[in-house]
Amino acid sequence: MAEHPTAPLAGVRVIEFTHMVMGPAAGLILADLGADVIKIEPARGDNTRRLPGSGAGYFPMYNRNKRSFCVDLKAPAGKDAVLKLIDSADVVIENFRPGTMDRLGFGYDTLNARNPRLIYCSEKGFLQGPYEHRTALDEVAQMMGGLAYMTGPPGQPLRAGTSVIDVQGGMFGATGILAALFQRTVTGRGQQVVASLYESTAFLVGQHMAQFAVTGKPAAPMPARVSAWAIYQVFETGDDDQVFVGVVSDKQWKLLCEAFELDDLAADETLATNNDRVAHKERLLPIIKDTFRQYTKQQLMDKLEKTGLPFAPITRPEELFDDPHLNAGGGLLPITVTDGERAGESTKLPALPMEMSGQRFGIHRDVPRAGQHTREVLAEAGYSETDIDQLIADGVVGAE
After folding, report:
1. Is 264 annotated as catalytic?
2. Residue 329 pLDDT grade (very low, low, confident, very high; cuts 50, 70, 90)
3. Residue 134: how many CA atoms within 13 Å on its side-chain side?
4. Does the global pTM surpass 0.90?
């Protein structure tokens, strides 16, 4: 669990004022890349630790490789302690409502005056404009940004099945931070970076906006869309299971016909090109469906894999724990559950989806327990053991 001195962001210190997903996701990326990320939590710990249901996985997923410092930011002694950390920090990340950090005394202008080299990342609902003071959530952004409309059947807007906008907003925040760190090597100064939920959603659906610009026709929701390819959907198998199959080129069409001995289709000139097949989709698809139903799920996937065609089983999230590819390639990282009914139990969660020099990024710190590193962080800031004990006794900081 030691620091990695050769990690890309080794030596970069990040002070993270975040909760839920968007802000923690930005910090997670930097932490996995080797930055020393100190997570500022309320004296009793981040409320995200205690979320039920679909929120129960937020904290363990997005807070590994960080240190936990629990502190009352409204207490003068607590504020002073955090300001000492910020004075020597490289990055601050926050994802609170507009104005909150200013009221607490940790706004950009205040911190920039103290530490001109500081990069200050705000993860917000909206960038500058008429909506910038609204409160936003992942679901709010998906609804008003067109993603929910595109995901559900016509007339039934449906949010995506994960916090995709929160995570993407965190990714853009991390990207901005990395760009600002690079620019600081030239200018010597930090700057404010802002990433947002709404604009992240608009960026995702930009392809559908472009589709309208090109064709003059509104994009239909995905369940009702006119696909660019004739074979590009989920098919039933002979053992009552499902497999997605896509054929997205003329070469792949020839491979499909050859693999499944569809000689008549291969010889049919009216199906020779992709656009031909789309035009005759209603005639073609029943034949493909009947062909695939002759195989079990595993038989079909085995045949498709040998052929090199795009395919996918319909997998549930909990089934990924046993995925051979993820387990073989360092795609799942061992962590310990810190809160809830299964606190103390070991599990595995997805690593960053990238490699550098052929290496994946792993765990150098487990998911922190609330206040686990409070004493350590304060000692690094110059506090004596007596001072730390007094801060704990006064309720200014929380520690294990």
Report:
1. no
2. confident
3. 17
4. yes
